[in-house]
Fold this sequence. Notes:
single chain; alpha/beta; 7-stranded mixed sheet; 6-stranded mixed sheet; 31 helices; 27 strands; 18% strand
Amino acid sequence: MNAHTAPIPPIPDAAGATPVMAQFFEAKARQPDALVFFRMGDFYELFFEDAHKAAAAIGIALTHRGTHAGQPIPMAGVPAHAAEAYLAKLIRAGFKVAVCEQMEDPAEARKRGGKGIVRRDLVRVVTPGTLTEDGLLEARGANRLAAVALRGGKAAVASVELSTGEVDCLAVAPEGLASALAALAPSEILVPDRLFADEGVNAALKAAGGVVQPMASALAEPSAAEGRLKRLYGVETLDGFGALSGAEVSALGLIAAHLETTQAGKRPALRPPRRAGEADVMAIDPATRASLEIERTLSGGRDGSLIAAIDRTVTAPGARLLASRLGRPLLSPDAIDARLDAVAWMLERRGLRETLRDALKSAGDMARALSRLTLGRGGPRDLGCLRDGLAAGGMIAALFAAESDPLTPAPAELIDAVAALNPGAQPRLKTFLDTLDRGLSPDLPGLARDGGFVAATVLEDLDQTRALRDDSRRVIAGLERRLAAQSGVALKIRHNAVLGYFLEATAKQAEPLLAPPLSAQFIHRQTMANQVRFTTVELADLDAQIARAADRALALELAVFEEWRDAAVATAGLIQSAAEGLARLDVAAGLAEWARETGAARPVVDRSLVFEAVGARHPVVEAAVKRAGDAFTPNDCRLDGAGEAGPRLAIVTGPNMAGKSTFLRQNALLAILAQSGAFVPARALRLGVVDRLFSRVGAGDDLARGRSTFMAEMVETAAILTQATPRSLVILDEIGRGTATYDGLAIAWACAEALHDHNRSRALFATHYHELAILEERLAHVANLSLKAKEWNGDLVFLHEAGPGCADRSYGVQVAKLAGVPPSVVARARQVLDRLESEGTSHQGLTELPLFAAFEPAPAISSGPSAMETELTKLDLDGMSPREAMDALYRLKGMMS
């Protein structure tokens, strides 16, 4: 029985609130569906319902403070210095958080008189798709905010990576939404509320996995969306972005509306939208992405995925770009070849590649640093990141200039990347870099308000103020000596909280200072019993300067920081281009390094319908078996949609555990790698461009939607049969399992025929229904393949070799034995199998087998020696005569009967 949980009391009416609580109620009214982080001194406090929710979600203490409407006010708080960690926990728990900051120093509030309530305002709303802080982000993973729109029967998906400024827009057919969202893997998806009535949209959103944020449908209206988009980019027209469709404008407009709200009016530095259509990238549906484990394994981790196996990048931006390329492989052979040219050029130049990778390690993550600076969340270390990244870019540009060879020029992909890095070719970028080089100190604080980030000699006024602040004792001592020498009196400079700095002398010594002409310079302040105290105009000024020096030094530094931040924003486009150039170089060098390590080959990608792999290997499995000290067995695969260079459909049979699923997956991964612009783990690969990739390998039930494992498998199969084209690549594993034998065989047979005759797709069809082997004779472009295994001394040995022909059996009983199934069960299974496989026995003949009531279990295996074993141990083999040995054999034989 569930424990009773007391309901959380709702937030009460604001009537009668204190001035501070009135500020909270105002902030809450503006963001009613967010938790409000309300800044009070060194803490962010949460009140009422927000406090209850946060305390339950992240385990912070729930207390009470003051009263409102006669009731105690529930409160929970987190330290401001640790707020980022708590924000991360709340975001992961599915909340969004509105941050209400103090907008002035409490001292300023006190100057206004009265109770001096500090002004507060919402400065941002933190949602899963709008994170920018390093502590809230995965360094090597993207964090995208996506939006979906449908208009006029057409759909569009827009996305923004706020932490880097990248914006993408993809026009798709409505049925392509799931594949488009799966490619982006967004953290948050904005959806007009009217679309929730569309079953197709709901299915795509569920498959995408991000937090779904409903938006008012009015925000997606093209005219309103266009206006917001213009404001976001600060332009008068959208013509410079190309001929955006109504659906694309609506999707981009939803993002603009969300950013207006969450960033409290601050305009981020965004790049122009990169537009793409379904004809530009390979479509990979969510089920296929999951089964192929491209970026994440089925358990959700990165280790064991395709990207983890091939990622040799040395920077976080490079890792994110590689993931983006793997997630959205290209369809244009020319664009693919441009990427492959870059990898091949890098592979041939090991020395340059190693020097480049060393230089890249110091580049940092300029795009994310720039984004924080643009949104007012950056600090001196972000400026330092820009300095280091631009400096590394300059070094790399010089490296490529020295490597220049007219006979073997660098490919266009690399030339374009290097061109964006050369500060000499970008005067504004060079000026900015020179400013940071000269101006930033070696040790940078995380926050500008901590000061100490401006180097000496940059600003004379700052140097003097710092000297006054840091060397006040030396300055005071110097003034003391000078005034004593001028007056001829042994003066001492003292300090207290009432008078500040003052001069002190004994009553006797002070007499000359009270008389002209010294009395004009030395102003009497106080007479004590034995001392007289004075000041001078210079000392009074120095006193005030020292008191103000620390505040003034910080104010001067903050002014310099804002000046540099504005300069960064002014050169944002150039910095973003340089950051992208570094990432492209990192990806090319990293893929070349992986190709060298694994012996990967350059694929040939064309517009044919051929898939011809020679000596192909599974990149993830190969890495795993190598770590275990074993070798991976490569295999060939030939398919041709036209049926000329190979079969259109290959029926793959073989024992369980022989490697059928690995064989299927490795060929699908070769297509992804090749069209992403990477070399492939094979001796050779010729690939006709794949427009859609489908993988139905393994399935689980979907209890939330009332689907059994078999039903989930059939839904995925239906999607393949309705969407696959002659240019698609399909891999299917054991279609028809999970239901009656004849039903499953019939479904598998019909699916194979449909793929061959109607979809005409290149397909690998793994099955244990050996009856399907006859399709090789019945259909024009079908061939049988099998994964080999041999029985040796009663054991099954897997060869993992794919060859022509159909497997003679599945060896399921032998695999059960290897898996540790009890010997009695294995023995019984052999009995049943032998009867089934005996000549002339039909399935109806099973009724003659004692399957249930008449079943006699095999004798239990005794833990001690048998009678025969005992008798054997008694025999003295060396001392027996031939006659005695013969008698012993007869006795032993008799014991067996």
